């Protein structure tokens, strides 16, 4: 059984990726027009988050900033491979990545995904999108700063984590979740930037209980794949 190939989930994802392309087109074009180096763009983004995290993401409230269809399929496959029952997502945005992961949960018999986002409008739209895909019973969205929304009420051990939020919070969120991670848990980071938060150095140091490497697709996005080894 594969919910991504056909049916209501596949149809909803196709629609949402089209909406995302339209919603984010102007933002992507702005980046292209400015013709700045990657290092300069990243440096400015990190500095902006450090000044006022809420202001940065309030300004992106209408942008999907979502995973690509290819990355979404990778997430779905990760869920199935690790036979996940409990997933935590940092940075749910409009719910596209949550749909991919919840579809994986559905196709292996069920489970729970807890997602969180700073913007209330995005949480509302994520809930609606997940409901449209018929997956609402598998997903809980929490509104607010993930350092607070993920500090309690996570339930059983976590099998998988998806990090796709504020660049500067990847390591703090991972450290917050660490006590709940089962051995062998998968951690997938999109935009896990070496310049931000110390996350990459941390997960690539085996002394911290992880094995980690960059993903060999969508270069430049800072995609990182990590497993908890102890």
Automatic annotation (TrEMBL):
Gene3D superfamilies: Vaccinia Virus protein VP39. Keywords: Methyltransferase, S-adenosyl-L-methionine, Transferase. InterPro entries: SAM-dependent_MTases_sf (IPR029063), SAM_O-MeTrfase (IPR002935). SUPFAM superfamilies: S-adenosyl-L-methionine-dependent methyltransferases. PROSITE patterns: SAM_OMT_I (PS51682). GO terms for molecular function: O-methyltransferase activity. GO terms for biological process: methylation. Pfam families: Methyltransf_24 (PF13578). It comes from the Bacteria. The keyword S-adenosyl-L-methionine applies. PANTHER family: PUTATIVE (AFU_ORTHOLOGUE AFUA_6G01830)-RELATED (PTHR43167). This is Methyltransferase domain-containing protein. It comes from Bradyrhizobium shewense.
């Amino acid at each position: 059984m594969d919910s991504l190939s056909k049916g209501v989930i596949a149809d909803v994802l196709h629609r949402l990726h089209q909406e995302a392309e339209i919603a984010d087109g102007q933002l992507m074009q702005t980046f292209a027009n400015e013709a700045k180096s990657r290092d300069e763009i990243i440096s400015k983004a990190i500095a902006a988050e450090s000044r006022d995290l809420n202001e940065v993401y309030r300004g992106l409230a209408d942008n999907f900033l979502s995973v690509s269809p290819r990355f979404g399929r990778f997430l779905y496959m990760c869920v199935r491979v690790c036979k996940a029952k409990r997933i935590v997502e940092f940075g749910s945005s409009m719910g596209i990545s949550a749909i991919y992961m919840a579809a994986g949960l559905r196709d292996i018999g069920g489970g729970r995904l807890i997602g969180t986002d700073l913007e209330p409008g995005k949480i509302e739209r994520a809930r609606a999108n997940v409901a449209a895909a018929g997956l609402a019973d598998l997903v809980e969205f929490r509104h607010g700063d993930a350092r607070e929304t993920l500090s309690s009420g996570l339930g059983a051990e976590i099998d998988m984590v998806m990090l796709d939020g504020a660049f500067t919070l990847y390591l703090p969120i991972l450290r917050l979740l660490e006590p709940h991670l089962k051995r062998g848990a998968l951690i997938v980071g999109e935009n896990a930037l070496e310049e931000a938060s110390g996350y990459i150095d941390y997960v690539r140091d085996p002394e911290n209980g992880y094995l980690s490497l960059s993903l060999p697709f969508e270069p430049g996005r800072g995609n990182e794949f990590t497993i908890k080894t102890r």
